[in-house]
Design goal:
Elements lengths: L3 E12 L8 E9 L2 E5 L3 E2 L5 E13 L3 H9 L2 E9 L4 H6 L4 H21 L34 E8 L2 H4 L4 E7 L19 E8 L11 E11 L10 E9 L5 E7 L2 E3 L7 E3 L11 E5 L7 E2 L7 H4 L6 E12 L1 H14 L1 E9 L10 E9 L10 E7 L1 E2 L2 H8 L30 H4 L2 H16 L15 E2 L4 E2 L1 E8 L9 H11 L13 H32 L10 H11 L2 H20 L11 H28 L12 H14 L3 H14 L3 H15 L2 H14 L4 H13 L3 H14 L4 H14 L2 H13 L9 H4 L14 H11 L3 H8 L7 H14 L3 H15 L3 H13 L3 H12 L9 H13 L3 H14 L3 H13 L3 H14 L4 H13 L3 H13 L5 H18 L1
InterPro entries: CFAP70, TPR-like_helical_dom_sf, TPR_rpt
Keywords: Repeat, TPR repeat
């Protein structure tokens, strides 16, 4: 049942049309799909920029017909604008001289020439000026008097197009300004800006009610771009067509066929998408939609050479660049989503034939492609541009991959059902044998049927599989680029508010603390620290100011006074306002805590005035004291070496203790780092990394939750939390963490690749493809220079890892001890740097304590990558774990002799000293430990050097080393114990007693050292008493 709606197009006027004739009229012809909708009435052009008119064109549309809707949304309304020579009022024209128009033209021309000669100061060549023929008399007589001459016919000014897309986007009435394009392309001298181009003003509305529904509808746009790497069988004299099977408005699968692929060579590419080929070949087919000018958005699963898309060069290609739309109602949209869920691919057919020849196998080529659209199933994605490899058509393969039931170019092939044809041997009509057969005939026929059942079934000949199509001389795969775009995504994306709420629900509640946590003493200390930081920052800004002034000796800020110029420099950069707000904040806290005032705040009150003076004096005194202190310390020379922060030292101590097996000591170092660090999020995250290394995932889970409580945007904690949730099979919660991390850090390459691995792990291929596309998009983004990325592990290094997606991600995941995902990342790098691939696998096996397997990978890495300090160090660690000290020492010595090694190879120094001490070479062990102390001193290294000196009876040197160890960590009972022994041997009994008390206080567990101390005390007591 049809439901006809009328689309009324009202021509409201013309704008910016410059008439060719002195008196001119203009009108419009409208065509839609080859149907002439009529011609508007003529409107006289005047000197005004806008010429008003009113004329209606009507297009009927059956909303219950899918074809009618698709025609309206996929084809424009074509306008042809004509200018007609107008005739003035005959009574007025008869009163004018016959040659007035020509004289006026000549006078106007002479005036123009004279103006050019005056302003250009040169003589104008009058022979170059030609009077237009339209103003000359058709008879060529100068003396003959007649009517004012006019040209014979109308002039085509150009064409315009009206797109009905807004009607399908929920707008039942809209107004548009349509540019009038000339039929021929203008030269550069004739081109004008868009705002000066002539245009038509039209209004479109739907007559009556009951237009299309607005909810749960969608618009599917298919753009066929070009075919690249053409084989030799294709040529320029062939016809090229493409068919795509998609649902129409009423949930019926239909073939969208695009004809007219053109053979092109060179870089002359069409930049605009084209409308489907219409009935009028002279009409401009260019739309207002531009073709994508980059290849970054193409899903290239077939690894095609996309340089051919960006720079075609001289290679031929078949270019379509045609856009076709389908309007999808609710059921059709659900059907399209269901088909994508089931098959993840869209069927595409390519048919190539010779014009004028039968379209059989000898004169045509039938190809197919499976367009992977799984990305459209990811929430928020509405556009997919993919490269699809072409192969020969195979009915069963395309049915299995895409669900295509019938082929457009081979309609006799029903790939869904293979019915057996019925053949009438007599050539006549089929008759009902049962109605005319006798009983004997029935018996005979039953016997025949029984005999037929005994015969063997016919042999089914399998159709050979499809064959990939290759082209050009390099043998590259032939492919086609297709773009699919939806008005609305099939899966709506989650807003950031929902992600934030879900993330907060995953975290523990924040502890309720008292709001008043500062005292008067702490407030004054905070005030002094703030003054110190402000002063130091002012000095650094002044250095920058002087550099700028030296680079530009001119008066940069308009002020010659340096003091005022520096003030202007601070104000223009927004630093002065920051200083004011910071000083106000710290001053208010200090006043509130140290000088509380509860009396009346009346400006005329004497007590209040005295209070203000007291506060001002006190704050000024504190400021002057801090500035004087800074000025006194400023005369001292600056240190040439930058001392690391205490929290960074605790991180080094903890990692070293973990490597040498002192897990409890490492736990204490990481906990102290959490207590002292200013950035709690990073310290809690490092604590979680430590627990993952020791295999305690429960504690790591709690630590990373605490990290997110401190900073819910910290990307490393979000990544770790997501992977831990994935290990607990909480996929939705893990996805929430991933999405939150990528929302706050959209250019984080490792985050996108890890999210790709996560989606691949849970079977979400559309999400995996999208994340991989985003990772390639941000491949050239500079690496983040944060503490976790730049810091190398003590066991291995990332310096030899190439700047590649999956290598960088694998290195990050190994640092976080997620070895399963790291191995998945490394599987994508097998064809890359094989040496680094084996090196990272060796690191994973070493952490898993599979030392023999790790050693095999290390040797393979050395063979493929070549000699390298990192590979030799890993092999040495494996030999040491296997208790092969000689082999380990050889590998470590190779590291020392490497020319490209860094200065600080802390763990190699420590392990080499350990091996040398076990083999009796204490002198070399001491040298290695001192080398470690030179670059990265730790309590363990100073203790080791002190013990070697103590064994050599060099008590003074041993005491100095132990004191350095005590400076690093004053809670090591072994250090206090050996200091007690040294003081006893040096007869410093009071110091020895204090050191022994500290030994007991820190709970020493070394019973052998305790016995030595007690034995020494016994001997001292016997000697003294």
């Amino acid at each position: 049942m049809s439901d006809i709606k009328h689309v009324r197009i009202t021509l409201c006027g013309y704008k910016g049309i410059v008439p060719t004739y002195s008196i001119a009229d203009v009108n419009v012809q409208a065509h839609f799909l080859g149907t002439d909708l009529g011609t508007s009435t003529k409107a006289a052009l005047t000197d005004d920029e806008y010429c008003a008119t009113s004329f209606d064109f009507v297009i009927p549309c059956d909303v219950n017909s899918a074809k009618s809707l698709d025609d309206l949304i996929s084809n424009p309304l074509q306008f042809k604008v004509y200018e007609h020579p107008g005739r003035g009022d005959k009574k007025i024209m008869d009163q004018l001289p016959a040659r007035l128009s020509q004289d006026a033209l000549a006078t106007s021309s002479e005036t123009t020439i004279n103006l050019i000669e005056v302003f250009a100061k040169r003589t104008f060549d009058r022979s170059a000026f030609v009077t237009p023929e339209c103003y000359q008399s058709p008879r060529g007589s100068k003396s003959e008097k007649s009517e004012t001459p006019f040209p014979a016919g109308p002039i085509l000014l150009g064409s315009a197009q009206l797109d009905f897309l807004p009607l399908f986007q929920g707008r039942e009435i809209f107004t548009q300004s349509l540019l009038i394009h000339k039929s021929e392309q203008p030269y550069d001298d004739d081109m004008v800006p868009v705002n000066l181009m002539p245009c038509l003003m039209v209004e479109v509305n739907i007559e009556g009610d009951g237009w299309l529904p607005r909810k749960y509808t969608n618009i599917l746009s298919v753009t066929i771009e070009s075919i690249y790497n053409l084989p030799n069988v294709m040529s320029a004299d062939m016809d090229y067509s493409v068919s795509v099977n998609i649902p129409n408005a009423h949930s019926e699968q239909e073939h969208v066929v695009i004809h007219g692929g053109t053979w092109k060579t060179g870089t002359n590419m069409c930049n605009m998408k084209l409308w489907p080929k219409g009935h009028d070949p002279e009409v401009n087919r260019e739309t207002c939609y531009r073709m994508a000018d980059t290849v970054d958005t193409i899903h290239n699963k077939i690894n095609a050479n996309l340089e051919k898309v960006a720079n075609p060069g001289s290679d031929p290609r078949v270019e379509f660049n045609v856009i076709k739309r389908n309007y999808l109602m609710e059921q059709a949209s659900r059907l399209f989503r269901k088909n994508l869920k089931d098959y993840r691919h869209l069927p595409l057919e390519v048919f190539i034939s010779r014009p004028g020849m039968p379209k059989d196998a000898a004169n045509s080529l039938h190809l197919m492609a499976n367009v992977d659209l799984s990305t459209l199933l990811y929430p928020g994605v509405s556009r997919c541009r993919a490269s699809c490899g072409l192969r020969t058509f195979h009915k069963k393969e395309i049915l299995q991959r895409t669900g295509l039931q019938s082929s457009y170019f081979a309609p006799d092939v029903n790939v869904g059902k293979c019915a057996t044809p019925v053949v009438d041997k007599k050539g006549g009509k089929a008759k009902d044998d049962k109605s005319k057969a006798s009983k004997s005939d029935k018996g005979a026929s039953s016997k025949v049927q029984d005999l037929k059942q005994l015969l063997p079934s016919p042999v089914v000949v399998e159709e050979p599989p499809s064959v990939l199509v290759y082209g050009n001389q390099q043998g590259e795969r032939t492919f086609i680029v297709v773009e699919i775009e939806l008005q609305k995504p099939l899966e709506m994306q989650r807003p950031i508010e929902d992600l934030t709420v879900d993330l907060i629900n995953l975290l523990p509640p924040r502890p309720m603390l008292s709001k008043h946590v500062i005292s008067a003493r702490l407030a004054v200390k905070q005030y002094r620290d703030g003054i110190k930081q402000l002063t130091e920052d002012i000095l650094s800004q002044h250095d920058k100011f002087l550099v700028d002034m030296a680079a530009c000796p001119c008066v940069q800020f308009g002020i010659r006074d340096t003091k005022n110029a520096f003030l202007t420099f601070l104000q223009k950069n927004g630093i002065y306002q920051t200083y004011l707000s910071s000083f106000t904040k710290i001053a208010c806290v200090a006043i509130k805590e140290k000088f509380p005032y509860v009396e009346e705040t009346n400006p005329n009150n004497k007590d209040y005035q005295n209070y203000i003076g007291e506060v001002f004096s006190s704050l000024t005194k504190e400021s002057h004291d801090m500035i004087n202190l800074l000025s006194k310390s400023g005369v001292e020379p600056k240190a040439t070496t930058i001392m690391p922060k205490e929290e960074d030292l605790f991180l080094l101590y903890g990692e070293e203790a973990c490597e040498i097996g002192a897990i409890l000591l490492a736990d204490r170092y990481f906990l102290e780092r959490v207590c002292q660090a200013k950035k709690k999020a990073t310290s809690w995250f490092d604590y979680a990394v430590f627990y993952l290394k020791t295999g305690d995932e429960e504690k790591a889970f709690e630590c990373v939750r605490r990290s997110l409580l401190e900073n819910e945007k910290f990307k490393y904690s979000l990544l770790m939390f997501a992977l831990l949730l994935c290990g607990r099979n909480k996929k939705e919660e893990a996805e929430t963490c991933f999405l939150t991390a990528m929302f706050f850090h959209p250019t984080w390459l490792e985050g996108w690749v890890t999210m790709h691995l996560f989606y691949s792990h849970i079977g979400n291929s559309e999400g995996a493809d999208l994340c991989l596309e985003m990772a390639h998009k941000y491949m050239n983004t500079p690496k983040s220079n944060d503490y976790f990325t730049n810091r190398d592990n003590l066991i291995w290094t990332t310096s030899i890892c190439p700047n590649e997606l999956f290598f960088r991600t694998a290195a990050l995941l190994i640092k976080m001890y997620f070895f399963e995902f790291a191995e998945k990342s490394l599987t994508h790098t097998k064809n890359g740097n094989r040496g680094v691939y084996h090196y990272l696998l060796g690191v994973i096996q070493y952490y898993r304590k599979n030392y023999e397997h790790a050693l095999v990978h290390a040797k393979e890495a050395e063979q493929l990558h070549g000699p390298d300090y990192a590979v030799n160090a890993l092999a040495g660690h494996c030999y040491l774990a296997l208790d092969k000290l000689a082999d380990a020492k050889n590998e470590y010595m190779g590291v020392l002799e490497s020319f490209d090694r860094p200065d600080d190879i802390h763990l190699v120094f420590v392990y080499l000293a350990l091996i040398s001490e076990r083999t009796g070479d204490k002198q070399f062990a001491k040298k290695m430990l001192l080398s470690a102390c030179k670059y990265s001193p730790t309590p363990y290294t100073w203790l080791g050097v002190g013990l070697i000196y103590y064994s050599q009876k060099d008590l003074i040197s041993a005491e100095q080393c132990l004191l350095q160890a005590n400076v690093c960590d004053n809670r090591l009972p072994e250090v206090w114990g050996y200091l007690a022994l040294i003081n006893l041997e040096l007869a410093r009994y009071s110091e020895a007693e204090l050191c022994y008390k500290q030994t007991k206080k820190n709970k020493i567990v070394n019973e052998e050292l305790v016995k030595k101390i007690e034995k020494a005390w016994t001997w001292v007591n016997k000697t003294l008493y």
